[in-house]
Each structure stands twice: as C-alpha cells, then as structure tokens.
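TEACHING EXERCISE
Course module: macromolecular assemblies
Task: Read the component lines below, then compare them to the predicted structure of the full complex.
Student: A.B.
Group: 4
Components provided:
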Amino acid sequence: MNIKIRYVVLLTATTSLILTGILAGPSDINLKDVFRGLTLSSDDAVVKTIIWDMRIPRMFVSLLAGGCLGLAGVLIQLSTRSPLGDPNLFGIGGGAAIFLAVVAAGFLPLGHFGIFFGSICSSLLIAIFLSKLISKDNLTPIKIAIIGIAVGALTIAIGTSVISHGRVFPSQVIGLVSGSFTSSTWLTVYYLLPTLCLSLVISIIISKRFYPIMLGDVLSRSLGVNPVRTRTITMTIVAVLSGTSVYAGGLIGFIGLMSPHIAKRIFGNTPLKLVIGSVWIGSITTIFADQIARLLFSPIELPVGMITTVMGAPVMMYLALRIR
Amino acid sequence: MNITVNDLSLEISGVKILHQISFQIPDKSFTCMIGSNGAGKSTLIKAITREITGYSGSISEIKENELSYLPQKLIAPAFITVFEVVHTGFYGVEMSKKEKVIATNKLLEQCGIEHVKDGTFSDVSAGEQQKTWLAFALAQSKDLIIMDEPLSSVDPPSRESFYEILRKISNNGKTLIVVTHDLDMAIKYSDKIICLNKGNKVFEGKPSAFPK
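Instructor-supplied answer key:
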C-alpha cells in the first residue's frame, strides 16, 4: 500500500475512534445533546459532565497511556534484543501494580502526585532487577522473553495477594490487574502528557544507537556505542512510561508487544520510524480496545486489558513461532 | 599491519592456557590459526584483542580503530534484514546516507549475498549469515579483521566460497586472522598457518610446509 494511503487510513481510524469515544457511551444521550454538551451550549449539567469530565478525559487517557505502552514496548524490544518485549508482560508495569495495590489496600495514605511518583519508582525497581537478570551476554531473544514473563507473573501474584488483604471493591482489583480507564480524570491527562512527550523526545535523540545494540554487546562496543549505558537510559524511560501507564489504566498487556511490529510494517524498520510509529499505533490500538471494552456489552464494561490480550496473544504466538 | 607476539604465557586460575608463544603476522596477509578444541586459539585471540589481560610477554598494540573483531558466538538479531546488518557496520563512519547505501550494496555484492539482502537475517542460511557478518566487518573499514571460528555450522560448498571471498579481501589489502578447525581450507587459501596444541605453538609457516 502506498505510504500516503497508509497515513490517511491511520488518520481516519484515529479520528473515528476519538469520535466514538466522545459520541458513544452507555448513557442515553442523543447525538444532538452530545454536540450541545461539546460546545457547552447545553443547559443540562449532567450531559456536560458526561462529555467533559468523563468521555473526553477518558479518550485522552486511553490515547496517551497507549502511546506510553507503545513507546515502552519498542524501547524494551530494541534495547534487550527481544522482539517479544512488553513492559507489562515483563513485570515492569507490575512493579507499579504492586505499589498501587499497597495504596488501594490502604497501607499507604498518599496524594495523587505521591501515587503517580510511587508508581514510577516501583516500576524502576523492577526494571533494575530485570536488567540485572538479562545482562548476561548471549541470551537468546526467547530466553529473555521467558525471564521477563516469569518476572511479570511474579509481580502480578504479589500485587494480587497484597490487594486481597485490603478491603477493596472487586472492580478495583480487576481494574488494576486487567486494566480499566473507567476512573480517568483530567489530572491523569496532565500527568500523562508531559511524561510521554519528554520520553518521546529522549527516545528520538538516542534512537540512532539502537541498531548497534541489536547486534549484541561485543559488536555494539566495536561500533563505539556503549551498550550498558544505552540500556540503562532506555530501561529508565521504559520504567517511567510503564509506571505512568499503570497509574493511568492498570495492567494492559500486549500493546507494547504488538505496536512495534505493526509500526514496522506500516512505517518501516529504522529505529526512528519505529519509535514514533509505535507511539501512534500504541495509541490507536489502546483506544480501539477501550471502545470495545466500553461498548460491546454496554452498559456492562469489560476490562480493557482483556481486549488487548485477545488482540495481542495471537500476535505473540505468531512471533514466537517465527523466531529462530 | 604487522602483529608481533613475543613469549606470551597465560594462566587462568592456576591452569596454563598459553605457554611461551611467539609469532609474527605480516601486514596484508591471510593467517589461519588452527588447533583442536581447548588448544588455546580463542584465548590467544582474546589476548590480542585485549579482551583478556594479565598475560606475560608482549603483543604489539592494536588500536581500537584498526581492528574489527567477530567473536565466536554471535546471537542472530531478530527481525532485521541482511542489508540492515551490513548497513549498521557503517555506524559512526563519516559518509552521507546515500553513500552508505551504495557502499552497503557494494559489500553485499562483494560477499555474494546481494540476492538475500532483503531477507530477515535469522532466516538466511548459516553460510549467508557468516558472509553477512564478514560484510559487516568490512563496512567498518578497519585494516585488521579477526574472525573466531566463523564457519562452525556451514556445509562444505559454502565454506569454499567463504574462503574464496576471504582470499580476495586479503588480496585487496586487509590483514586477516581466522581461527578455524578447517585444515583443508587453511592450506588451500591462507598465506600462513599457526597451529596450537595444548597451549603451545607447534607450527608456524607457509601452508605448503605444513606437515600432513
């Protein structure tokens, strides 16, 4: 397909998903009222609240959290040389989930920023642990994936047992473990937007170093790129992004895994194109999954992470079969 | 580039790995280093590339910008093409993007892998992968190329064509050191053979003089 047509298709998809997020929903508002609510010309305070304080922030949060996951996914895949990398499957997001479980269970009384910051720090701890585990030379991509998934399973087990000790609603547990954007607010948007923008800028700046890194540490050094330093920077960004996305929407798996592979087919295989493309694809796939989660059995919501798993698990199986 | 190794000995945790080894590698020559498993070939190479230190004796200094070294175990990068691997060899080389693409294509042709250039690296044959690594090493435009057992899993016809390429590269002015088990190829194509056995040098000289 011609590259221009691809962009048009992607733009159309993004726009229609955004519109779906704003126009459609479980509450019984007709289109005319939605437009009135949008332009603030409606007298109905309920409509305005639904549009401006629920649907629009949720639409932004799903786009931005998806972008974070897509970017974290491509960074983890490029820097660890494992095409099966995913921040949440590899437990980095799980670090934040454990922290959020501790908070939800009432063990840590913290404000919004404290929770946001704590999520990032906890993800960072797991990222450091994981980096140590996979820092041995000559680990094959599959081995790296197995180690990562084991760490991921461990974090979910810890997180779930912590949260089951607190008196919390079952929906909170599901929201954390299987992902949900139900409680999205503008505040979440304000935390997500600068985090994603800053991470993207740094990733673009260092993207040139990723090809040498992909050839392994010895060759990377011979090309003048210090693999350990580059991986440290990258894994730090991955931790910040995953912590942020889990803070925003819980554990949403497979977006990080899928996005780089889809981006590669649409935009091309240079690290720069992959980095930018993965953000976009991550956003689209996540907002798409969220629309299905919201609307498929409306008014009952499905966890968004369940939808992304249904989308992503076959991709992972296909990729695993293709790796030698 | 001439390389002189003088009276090199190395012990690792009390075990003698290399014992008083001396040899010379002349500039622009193609040298094969042979010997059975555990003879000390890879260790010797690692001493030359300064990956291992703590030896006694001397090795002439090789600067980082003069050496391209392909270690024994290279993990196949997933999902990148043969072209991209070779192209990455030009990382940090001062050339325009266009020049790099032209130079990459030239190397692919020189190493006989232009027909698989768009193939995913991990999908092409072991012989083609090895030629890709060779083209990658050449892209770095260093004077000395050291390869540690490049053809451990390659069928005989592919070995032959690989050594033919190595011969041409050496004729074009590169110094090559190749560690190998493959005595037949070493005798047929190299300028010089150095044979190790249990950490001792047992032969150094022209292939024609090698005792069969």
